[in-house]
Amino acid sequence: MHEIITITLNPALDKSTHVYQVLPEKKLRCEQPVFEPGGGGINVSRAIKKLGGKSSTWFLEGGPAGEKLCELLKEEGIDYWTVKTRNWSRENLMVMEDSTGNQYRFGMPGPETHENEWKRCLEKLENMKQDELPKYVVASGSLPPGVPDNFYLQLAEIANKRGFRLIVDTSGEALLKAAGEGVYLLKPNLGELAALANKDQISALEQEEIARQVLEEGKCKVLVVSLGPRGAMLASKEGITYVVPPTVPQKSAVGAGDSMVAGMVMSLAKGCSLDEVVRYGVAAGTAATMTPGSELCRKEDTEEIFKWLQEHQVQL
């Protein structure tokens, strides 16, 4: 039994390469590509592994790209369970332009997904024996075509019925509908927090009031608002606090959000206080910005930043 399960319905085989300069209508000579498993929940499980934890990642797997995803996860020592799909899993491309240091990220749409495929994940959770259920399920990432935007809501219904804690990290209608059922933890950014309050945008002066509103409406028990380089705001029944990370040399923001979720769910599973949970999450997210390309957080960087936060954090 795994205490943590991550679910990814729109996984991706991420391919990255370098080229000296990106130019139109020219044959660009790229370096040998690097392949990595990608997608919200998959990246959360990979970051958990890097931080010394364990989880099982569930995802939809189709075609050669899906087979390569499984191969790469096996190499990283990550436990997984898949649902075979008729259509191929997507592939994303990131190109690093060496002459400028710019990143060009090409995200592909997911494949058309059939009802009997996406429902398998829900059925497996519904039918698991009580002593096999995880303590935490992380539902992260976008939904591919064919999956209804109430998928995370259905997942929340099962969580409330079976007793595991659901963490949702998504956007758009999928986020709004999941919040309508009530989940344990939501991790929106400021734009997504505005959407939860049915607003186009919000100011920094409004964010605490809206966070309290989200909690009072029962959309979640814990709200962690990602503030980018400014860290995060934690809102719960205990009140509101901020976690502000130290300034670090940044190389890439790719994977920071997934690393943050990984740090938080690992700490939750260990029984840490909510303040410590968010500090470790911010530490992992900040550590991810110190790594190049699409590399996730490193444990040694995360531990060093967490120690700093424990010593210097000021409650606001």
From TrEMBL:
Give UniProt keywords alphabetically.
Answer: ATP-binding, Kinase, Nucleotide-binding, Transferase
Q: Give the matching SUPFAM superfamilies.
A: Ribokinase-like
Matching entries from InterPro entries are given as: Carboh/pur_kinase_PfkB_CS, PfkB_dom, Ribokinase-like, Tagatose/fructose_Pkinase
Q: Does the keyword Transferase apply?
A: yes
The chain positions of domain Carbohydrate kinase PfkB read 23-297
Q: Which family does it belong to?
A: Belongs to the carbohydrate kinase PfkB family.
What is this protein's name?
1-phosphofructokinase family hexose kinase
Q: Which organism is it from?
A: Pontibacter locisalis
The beginning of the lineage is: Bacteria, Pseudomonadati, Bacteroidota, Cytophagia, Cytophagales
